[in-house]
Amino acid sequence: MQVRHAAAVLFLLGLLSGIESRGQAPVTPAQNAPEMSSRDAPATFSTKVNLVMVPVVVRDAKGKAIGTLQKEDFQLFDKGKPQVISKFSVEKAGEAVIPAEVATDEAALENATGATGAAAKPPSAIAQRFVIYLFDDVHTSTADLIQVRQAADRHLSETLDATTRAAIFTTSGQGNLDFTDDRAKLHEALLKLMSRPTIGAPGTECPDLTYYMADLIANKNDQFAKQAAATEVLATCEPPPPGETAAQAMQNAEVVVQATANHIVSLGDRDARLALTVLVDAIRRLTSAPGDRSLIFVSPGVYLPDDLHQEETDIMDRAIRANVRISSLNARGLYTYIAGGDASTPGTQGGADVMMAKAQYQRQSAIAEEGIMEELADATGGRYFHNNNDLKAGFGQVAAAPEFVYVLGFSPQNLKLDGTYHALKVKLVTSRGLDLQARRGYYAPKHLPDPEEDAKREIQEALFSRDELQDIPVELHMQFFKSSDVAAKIAVLARVNLKSLRFRKSDGRNNDNLTVLSGVFDRNGNYITGMQKVVELRLLDPTLEKLLNSGITVRTNFDVAPGSYVIRLVVRDSEGQSMAARNGVVEIP
């Protein structure tokens, strides 16, 4: 299923890529040129340069999100400098059921003498919400993974409804399950989850270094961390032979520490990059899901060295642009570090000093590992559940969308393309005891965005959405005809009212281009196929006057198998850059 879906999305991206040379340069039409023609070509959308989006969730003392604030209630700072909030919106979870037109059965209409016919029976529910549960099976221990998968199983069995589709992803890439509402398949996928670490369990290396501590030693030359690890080597791993001086013993121990740290850093870098890559893949998958999009990251945390924080920020930007909300659940639950380890950890010699040093670095490591989970949640309007063993309740919290999310947008002035980090701060003019959760920062780009890539991205976002847009009055009608038990045809008809369009007068003609994009999705929100048409309008005045009353109709046909489908129609005009978007459902028995 994932291979087919990927191929379908690649087909769409191919459909949207590159502007044909014949559509690039304006051509002055001759008097006998056709007034209306259509061609298949991608549309160009206006780009958004340097617009930084900042999701904000404001909760009262009881933890309930509030949605009554206005733009004037917020203050936004970039590196301490106040910014002008140029874009402001409030997103409300579950605000309305997705409106959709219903296809008609043409065979039934033809057989009904004198009858107007009735619409075909729509599917019982349209998939409106898509949730990926991403389990970090590389960093999570077996005991913790068993606990979280059991909690997730109970959570899904009790909360999965007819309009929600869930998917199971893992950082190892093994055992993935694409979007489905089949509880049996989800249960089976959860049962197959198992820990797949590449770095040994605590206590299997000597010295016993976390990725965080190894990074301090190998990359930051932290002498305190190196000495603490060397002391452990002398006390536990390789006691000095008789007659060796303390200085020589410490020097030899530090050689062992450096080699171990280099090895751990190599493995840790690979695993951290793997986790980031899988997060990107999950967001990319959600981007093609036509509805509310959530990603739940289940992990004990992933330590990110300094050179990977830019990639983390890129993930935040990608998620925000795609309206993906990331929440995190700490797989450790409620935990404390015991000096010297618990009963499952091999004993450490060397006295209280060694044990206290190890406990200190373990605590620091845990805090550093959790950073990505809290930061991703804050940046995208999600929640971070941690320090609590009620994991089932935790899944309920992180899976629930905040009732209100404010989205603040600003364009940094005189932004240097140097890739530097910009700390963000969002404040309320009057806090009134409210708690505010917001994105913490972003990295400046190193180059300007490519207009062609932005155009492809924007038109793709318009298709993979369920928002109803009505800048252009458009009627959506759908018909289907079943030619056999295994074959059917869907006709998508877009009737466009031209009265609201802005025509450009040139050479006695009224000029505008209409881009009409139709997409077909299955009941689980998987993209199947799509078609884009560009209608070039070069209308004389008498023709325009007639069409202003009648409008124009653009028809697109799709060959499908019998089944349940969701249709997405997007219409865009080039002169006014206005847009319309409609949804439809088709049930072919």
Summary keywords:
589 residues, alpha+beta, Immunoglobulin-like, Rossmann fold, 26 strands, 32% helix, elongated
Strand and helix layout:
Elements: H1 2-16, E1 36-39, E2 52-59, E3 74-78, E4 81-83, E5 87-92, E6 101-102, E7 104-105, H2 106-111, E8 129-135, H3 142-159, E9 164-170, E10 177-180, H4 183-191, H5 211-218, H6 223-237, H7 246-287, E11 292-299, H8 309-321, E12 324-330, H9 351-380, E13 384-385, H10 391-399, E14 404-410, E15 421-428, E16 435-438, E17 441-443, H11 451-463, E18 469-470, E19 474-482, E20 488-496, E21 504-506, E22 509-522, E23 527-539, H12 541-550, E24 552-560, E25 563-573, E26 579-588
Parallel strand pairs: 6-26, 7-19, 8-9, 8-11, 11-12, 12-13
Antiparallel strand pairs: 1-23, 2-14, 2-16, 3-4, 3-15, 5-14, 9-10, 15-17, 18-26, 19-20, 20-24, 21-22, 22-23, 22-25, 25-26
Helix pairs in contact: 3-4, 3-10, 5-7, 6-7, 6-9, 7-8, 8-9
Please describe what this structure looks like.
- The chain folds into three domains: 2-47 and 452-588, C2 domain (Immunoglobulin-like, Sandwich); 52-93 and 402-443, Immunoglobulin-like; 129-201 and 240-399, von Willebrand factor, type A domain (Rossmann fold), CATH 3.40.50.410.
- Helix 3 crosses helix 10, helix 5 crosses helix 7 (246-287) and helix 8 (309-321) runs parallel beside helix 9 (351-380).
- The protein is 32% helix and 28% strand.
- It has helices spanning 2-16, 106-111, 142-159, 183-191, 211-218, 223-237, 246-287, 309-321, 351-380, 391-399, 451-463, 541-550; strands at 36-39, 52-59, 74-78, 81-83, 87-92, 101-102, 104-105, 129-135, 164-170, 177-180, 292-299, 324-330, 384-385, 404-410, 421-428, 435-438, 441-443, 469-470, 474-482, 488-496, 504-506, 509-522, 527-539, 552-560, 563-573, 579-588.
- The protein has 589 residues and is an alpha+beta fold.
